[in-house]
Amino acid sequence: MCPDKQLTFQPIAGMENELLQVIDALPGLVWTALPSGQVDFLNRRWREYTGMSAETILQCWQDAIHPDDLPELLKRWSANLSSGEPQEMDARLRRFDGEYRWFLIRTRPVLDASGQLVKWCGLNTEIEDRRRIEALLAGETELLELVAAGRPMAVILEWFCRLVESVAPGCYCSIALLQPAGTHLEHGAAPSLPREFIDSIIDGPAESNPCASAALSNEQIIVSDLLSDPRWALCSWRQMALHHGIHACWSMPIVAASGKVTGVCSIHYDGRRRSAPLDQALIGQIARIASIAVERTQHDATLKRSEAFLAETRRLSSTGGFSKRVSTGEITWSEEVYRMFEFDAARPVTLELIRSRVHPEDRVSFDDMLERQQRGIDYEHEYRLLMPDQSVKYMHVVAHAIRDASGQCEYMAAIQDVTERRRSEAALIEARSELARVARASSFGVLTASIAHEVNQPLSGIITNASTCLRMLGAEPPNLEGARETARRTIRDGNRASEVIKRLRALFCKTDTTIENVDLNESIGEIVTLFRSELHRSGVTVQIDLAGNLPCVSGDRVQLQQVILNLLLNALEAMNGIDDRPRRLLVVTELDANDIVRVSVADTGAGFGIHEPARLFDAFYTTKPGGMGIGLSVSKSIIDNHGGQLWAIGNESGGATFSFSIPKQSKLRKDGNGGSAHWIAGVTDRQQSP
Ligand code: ADP
């Protein structure tokens, strides 16, 4: 395009030849223009750079401006002329070889002594490198946005290749990923290269092409001229590359922050190129962005996979998640929780909303759980929901407290719908207790019959002997010898009856024991674990406070666990029907100063009321309609045999605390038969609470 054919190149009037030479020798592209804007001088560099002749350049200089940039440039130049102020603008200039490169064009007005504008002069400086780096930086930001938007890896890598191709015109970019085993490549992206060429890269063994070599050796590999490079002479990839006109290739490994190679980024050229310093800087930048693209998208994909996995697991196990900031009370629910509570997912979650679903009977314990949240400790809780159709759901919550940098507490919790499990447990418990009732009734019947049978014989003997004795004493003369003999028989039968009772007692609670070192903390843990669902079902919160320094006691693990289980069951039963206060169970272990291990089970149940605590340990003492009244008496007997004590006290705020203590080295009472010990239980040794 030659906008002004009349103009011819004229040296500026008055300018010395010497000065002209200096300007021509300047490393920048210098030009001047008349106040009207007409260009009247372009220095030798300008001509050399664009390859235009001195004769035509003044008419045709606009032909050297990239057609996309020319309209904007002329618009700004015209605004510049009106303002008369210095200006800076960017435009691409075509080099003599046809390649366009970015330039910064600076203009300055030249004024005479009276301040009148006489000339414009300008300097064009090449800023291609800066523009490329800026384009890459902008690209990096955009790429991160794509990753954040969750775009698929293929889209992101293709976008990256196109970015590289736009900042390094004339090149074709490809990305191949290293498979997890680190021995083979797989296709990533190569939007401008034929697939068969890419296949020749990824299918080839290591060392068969520069891309695979770079990835497997973790080194940059430059092939500036494929025709003369001997390294690939025998590789089939070379034929394929030349077939598609590829003559040069830069391959750089993509290295993750951890130092692991994740792939290779290659830039292919279809002409011969040398690796200039600019290209090296650019390549470094490209490799860095490629590593971000691959690492972030892989990370994102892994995260998405595990999120999907988690969501599926949650769906299958009817588990939802929620978080709660303790300071603000802000609660966030997962979709699953909304489904469980049957609330619209658009509804903001508030405590009132949750509470409106909580079963009225569980509201006290629910509030108790909220109160415990204020303490910022991990907790587990179970409560029921009463749904609008009057159906009941059982919810089990496991919450973990975390603290942010400012120390604020936030709960991350899992909530599971355990309704089905609770229903089948309830059915099982129902069946079990029915079975136990039948077994108890029948064993009681059998026991009673056997007691009657065993005791009846000596009793009738005593009665017969006593009447014979009376008859002998009433005879004339009295038969003293016979009376003495029958009295002796009466005593014998009395002793036999007492012996029978003794044997029955022994039989009742006689079990072989194994003496071992028992860790009571561990035993409590085992029992509470077994017992947990029953506790949850009953809406009881358990607090376990175990002494860290608790030594083992020597004794019978099973028997001691039987005592603990009995105390827990009693506590649970004592809390049945308590709805005006939280149902809480506290299990504590302590070590006294004189090496005595103490276990306490405290509840918030009904307490003893008017009953005297000491009577509780009597055999067959019970206040429960279906009770047998032997649990505590057997427990007491077991603890006595460990050389310890069992006692009960009423709690001030309601409920009771049952405690037992055992010396660290407890001595079991043994019978004399070869060292096996027997518990003698069921007898009421009235013992006051210490
Ligand atoms: P049972 O449980 O069959 O009644 P136990 O010997 O275990 O037999 O208990 C005897 C009695 O002691 C119970 O009926 C009850 O009145 C009282 N008792 C036991 N544990 C507690 C407790 N934690 N709180 C209040 N009373 C209790």
From TrEMBL:
Reactions catalysed, as given in the entry: ATP + protein L-histidine = ADP + protein N-phospho-L-histidine
EC number: 2.7.13.3
Keywords linked to the UniProt accession: Kinase, Phosphoprotein, Transferase
Organism domain of life: Bacteria
UniProt cross-references to InterPro entries, sorted A to Z: GAF, GAF-like_dom_sf, HATPase_C_sf, HATPase_dom, His_kinase_dom, HisK_dim/P_dom, HisK_dim/P_sf, PAC
PAS domain location: 15-84
UniProt enzyme class: transferase
Region (Disordered): 667-690
Residues in PAC domain copies: 87-139, 379-430
Domain Histidine kinase: 450-666
GO MF annotation list: phosphorelay sensor kinase activity
Keyword Transferase: yes
Keyword Isomerase included in the entry's annotation: no
Protein name: histidine kinase
